[in-house]
Amino acid sequence: MFKTKLDKEGQIEQYKARLVAQGFSQIPGVDFDETFAPVTRHQTFWTLLALANQCDWHVHQMDVKLTFLNGDLENEIFMKIPPGAEAKPGEVWLLHKALYGLKQASREWYLKLKGQLERLGFKRSEADHGIFTKDMMGRLFVIAVYVDNFLLFSSDINDIRAVKSDLKGCFDMKDLDQAKWILQMKIERTGRSSDVWKLSISQEQYVETILE
Predict the structure, then answer these.
(1) What is the mean pLDDT of each run of 10 residues along the chain (212 residues)?
(2) Is the pTM of this model over 0.70?
(3) Which of 59, 45, 50, 58 is nearest to 183 (CA)?
(4) Distance of alpha carbon 122 from alpha carbon 164, whole angstroms
(5) Which H or E element spans position 112?
């Protein structure tokens, strides 16, 4: 599968190529069971950004590389060898890790992530299972997860740096610094006015795409 990733200005940021399994051929109860994987709700993102503006929180973003390949498979799954790969007649691949296209890939990734975050001392919110929080010496730290995108919220930049280091020790991650673009939302934060940050979000690119 080939995909073109755009940045917040609508410009080409990256070309992606992924090996994708034909999940439509999977059989319930044979090579997959549960498939549900929660993500942070849009309303929660908006609420957290409003709180960040009001409480003067830092908002940083991280991205997990090769996300689904971190998930461990519980079911035994065999896959046809794709064109271009050398193989003897009749050979197939036995998958050891979740692969894009598998029906349980998102769930296996979420379970792996949840386990790692809990190991780091985070607790999952019962109101939104895409939210994980931690008390860091009396300071609230929040991680909002949407598949492979993380938003990190904290009043202390040193806490942000420490958690980033911990996350990089768990997964291969890309540090995107201050949050600027997530879920088709452009996030802009300007300097202080009367000791208050001004944070705004827009979906200009999304609207223009719809209009076209």
Answers:
(1) 79 85 90 91 94 91 92 90 88 90 93 96 96 96 95 96 96 93 85 67 86 92
(2) yes
(3) 45
(4) 13
(5) helix 105-119
Domain that holds residue 178: 2-211
Contact (Cβ atoms closer than 8 angstroms) between residue 153 and residue 141: yes
Cα separations in angstroms, 165 against 10, 62, 91, 96:
30, 11, 41, 27
pLDDT digits (tens, 9 = 90+) for 89-100: 889 999 988 888
Overall residue count recorded for the chain in this entry: 212
> What DSSP line would sit under 47-60, residue for residue?
HHHHHHHHHT-EEE
What pLDDT, in 10s, does the model give residues 47-59? 999 999 888 899 9
Question: How many domains are there within the chain?
Answer: 1
Helix H or strand E segment including 7: none
